[in-house]
Design a protein that fits this description.
By secondary structure, this protein is mainly α. The protein has a single domain, classed as Cobalamin adenosyltransferase-like (Hypothetical Protein Ta1238, Chain: A). The chain has a two-stranded antiparallel sheet. Helix 1 runs antiparallel to helix 4 and helix 4 runs antiparallel to helix 5. The protein is globular. It starts with 11 loop residues before the first strand and ends in a 26-residue tail after the last helix. It holds the Pfam family Cob_adeno_trans.
């Protein structure tokens, strides 16, 4: 298979249903999702290098998320009415379940925390910030063109998931989160949901 086609040499690229400029907001949106996926791959690699047995559950979950991010990018590349979307409300619900489950593994914090800790947690915080940027790009796209609304919701939940998973990764390695010293208390105590890890 030949990798290069030369079709993009004039600054355009193919989407599902046509061709657009490479700086089109649709391309920027799914390109940023692809970037997030690459950072997830880096986080998985760090887990494999650290201890694949200790982080087996996180590796499996993140590998599933990589598949879903690929689907998200595909959905964002669809011009109106060209094919059914792949990301659904079920994917969003699943992320919420994962957030609740991994939150059970973290100590309570009252203030904002600084990104970092272990190298794995730091990588997951990078995933979080890129997912947030992808969400912003999708919001811009949605203001101009039709999109899969569940893809936008998915990216919103995904950044929450990465935040909690980063904290769980720190806790798993007995590394304390560093709270933002000059901040006030912003998190209120809430009863935690009893949900098993799946």
């Amino acid at each position: 298979m030949r990798i290069y086609t030369r079709r993009g040499d004039e600054g355009e690229t193919s989407v599902i249903g046509g061709r657009v400029s490479k700086d089109h907001i649709r391309v920027e949106a799914y390109g940023t999702v692809d970037e997030a996926n690459s950072f997830v791959g880096d986080a998985i690699a760090r887990m494999w290098e650290k201890d694949p047995e200790e982080f087996d559950d996180m590796i499996r979950v993140l590998t599933d998320i990589q598949q879903e991010l690929f689907d998200t990018g595909g959905d964002l590349a669809v011009v109106k009415g060209k094919r059914p979307y792949k990301i659904t409300a079920d994917h969003v619900d699943r992320l919420e379940e994962l957030v609740d489950a991994y939150l059970e593994q973290t100590p309570v914090v009252k203030k904002f925390i600084l990104p970092g800790g272990t190298s794995i947690a730091a990588a997951l915080h990078l995933c979080r910030t890129v997912a947030r940027r992808a969400e912003r790009r999708v919001v811009t796209l949605a203001s101009r063109e039709e999109i899969n609304e569940e893809a936008r919701r998915y990216l919103n939940r995904l950044s929450d998931f990465f935040f909690v998973l980063a904290r769980a990764a720190n806790a798993r390695e007995s590394r304390e989160d560093i709270q933002y010293a000059r901040g006030r208390e912003v998190f209120r105590d809430r009863p935690r949901k009893e949900r098993p890890m799946t």
